[in-house]
Amino acid sequence: MTMHNDPIFEAVYRDTLPKVARMVHRMGGDLDTAKDVFHDAVIIYLEKKQQNTVAIGSDQAYILGIARILCLRRLKDDRQYVAIHSQEDDYSIPADFYDPPPVTQPVISWLRNAGKKCLQLLQAFYYEKRSMTEIARHLQYKTQHVATVQKYKCLEKIREQVKQTSHEEAAI
User: Fold this and answer.
1) Residues 18/31, Cβ–Cβ less than 8 Å
2) Which residues lie below 8 Å from residue 24, measured CB to CB, with a gap of 6+?
3) Is the C or the N end of the chain the one with fewer CB within 10 Å?
4) Domain C-terminal end among 57, 78, 99
5) Residue ranges of the chain with pLDDT lower than 50?
């Protein structure tokens, strides 16, 4: 079976590898693990297809299924298990765990201080769960990238206000 310059093989690679990478990432793996799992899954798929041992309906679904099983096996083998009773002393709850830090200024005031446009942008993104494309269109930014940069700047303004407040409180 020749695979060099095979458009079907290239399409499977182009369309399936990103899906395998997302699946492996959700399972706690990294990109190298995803590539290894994908290549192993493709080899198994090609062997099965060449042997005609199974009726394969969808190439992509079959490869994704194989990759999922391989990933589960790999991540299971890579984990190191530690008996919990031997580590009990390491798992103590800190004394201040149940005492929330004092909030002297409500968060909404920091948002308002950041400006009306920032408040609208952050509300649309976090509360209304809008996409950055929608937000850019709604708030009349030139591009999605400009809206994303503006969101970052708004968050930085709020972080600075929080730092300022905590420094002022520490000085008192």
Assistant:
1) no
2) 30, 33, 34, 37, 67, 71
3) C
4) 78
5) 1-2
